[in-house]
Amino acid sequence: MGNNAVTYEPDNSLKKGYASLIRDIVNEFIINRWLFWQLFKRDFLAVYKQSFIGVFWALIIPLISVGTFVLLNRSGIFVAGSINVPYPVYAVLGMAFWQLFSTGLLAGSNSLVKAGSMVVKINFSKKSLVLASSSQGIVSFAVQLLLGVILCFAYGIIPKWQILFVPFAILPLLLLTFGISLLLAVLNGVMRDVGNVITFLLTFLMFLTPVLYAAPESGFLAELMRLNPLSYLISAPRQLILYGTIYEWRGFMYSSLISVFVFIFCLLAFHLTETRVAERI
């Protein structure tokens, strides 16, 4: 009899090549699009279930934050810098884009831990779970953006036709949010302290991003903001609404490329570790 020995080895997705790896991920998204939608609806209803004012909670917290800075600005304690538009409009729009990032990042990074029992017991696409949770920020963002546009008209600011490009301008911000969420979701499943650190870092990062004030022209803080991709990803769509143009095209393009790279890298890293996630949750 011949020696028909069979050698078994762990599945190594990298041996298929990156082209095959990306194709598998795309096919997975297509196959699991229904699952993604169901998980999105589940998370959305869970947030506003048994809530008296429902989705309007998305307005209350940002308005309180903006109102505080408006009072500080008018009292002279806080200086917003050179913005050339009414400060409430500038701040509300800035908070809308910031909340799109921060809310999505927090929800996505905690998604695997919160669904721990489901992750352990059921074999399903973990990417769909993370991305569905991270997409929760889109709903509150839409409400806050609508408020910002209404304030524009209330203060006599008529947005130009370039406002139509805002959905395209926020795509890099969404890619950055989804990418970092995938990475942090895995890290949070392994080290639960990550969830607490994220909340602290987001608060710190907001003050290094021109969300509620204009970026200074010089100094150490100005240099930090120039190195912060979020500075451009948040300023660009706001400038389209308020001024009809993007003043820092080069910074926005570089930041967009960084966002695409971060998303692809984190997506591939998550895909390669996805089968081992359940073991550590």
Q: Which term fits the overall shape? A: globular
Distance between the termini: 47 Å
Helix content: over 70%
How many strands, which pairing sense, and closed or not: the largest β-sheet? Answer: none
- Uncertain runs are 6-10
User: How much of the sequence is in beta strands?
Assistant: under 5%
Task: Give the number of helices.
Answer: 14
* Structure classification: mainly alpha
Radius of gyration from the CA trace? 21 Å
Summed up, the domain count is 1
Mean pLDDT: 79
Tell me how many strands there are.
Answer: 0
Compressed to H and E, one letter per element, the order equals HHHHHHHHHHHHHH
Structure overview:
By secondary structure, the protein is an all-alpha fold. It has one domain. It has 14 helices and no strands.
